[in-house]
Amino acid sequence: MGRSSRTEGTASDPPRAGHSGVGADIRLLRKSRKVPLTELAAELKRSVGWLSQVERGLGSASIADLRIISRFFSVPISFFFRNEDAPAEERGLIVRVGARQQLGTSETGLTEELLSPDLSGDFEMLRSVFAPGTESGPLPARPTNDGGVVVSGELELSIGERTFRLGEGDSFQFRDRPTRWRNPGKRETVIFWVCSPPVYCRLRRCHPSLPSP
Questions:
Q1: What is the pTM of this model?
Q2: Where are the beta strands (DSSP E) in 40-161?
Q3: Has domain 89-204 been given CATH number 2.60.120.10?
Q4: How far apart are CA 32 and CA 117, in angstroms?
Q5: ∠ CA(101), CA(38), CA(120), 5° rounding?
Q6: Domain ranges in the chain?
């Protein structure tokens, strides 16, 4: 069971109120990563019952809780506030270009934007930008369908034992295969990805590295 070594909500760190979607976001993120309630509750030093209530909209997580959750899942804390300014009729349906959730930093060589409104569907859409010279190293197979199209630049993509060099307009698809990618060019490469089921945040499973200076 999750630990309860700190108070379930404090006056110095007021709960995050007025946004019932935060709990749903936590649950979707946890489910997409296949993390048990007990594991996340232990990380938060909260009880499983408290976390379950937050996920069901019956309780509130503090800003401190959200910071811990964002670090645990390697997502920015702004992930939990991304829909606040969206009109009610667009939430869960539309993502405006200025409201895309960004993942990663330029230091990693790979930055991504979540194009899907949330993680509740059968697939996720991502826009990935690979810095020149960035490569992933070997990535293990996973039980997902991945596909994408090169919007600009070029990508060297290894699927199993075969390696392909893709250019603008080329597309690809694979399932449950070990992969590796590299940007062999001198400019950024932009890819639109679709992945099913959602695994949200590709950075969680690969560690791109920039070339040595």
A1: 0.67
A2: 101-103, 110-114, 124-130, 145-152, 155-159
A3: yes
A4: 14
A5: 35
A6: 21-81, 89-204
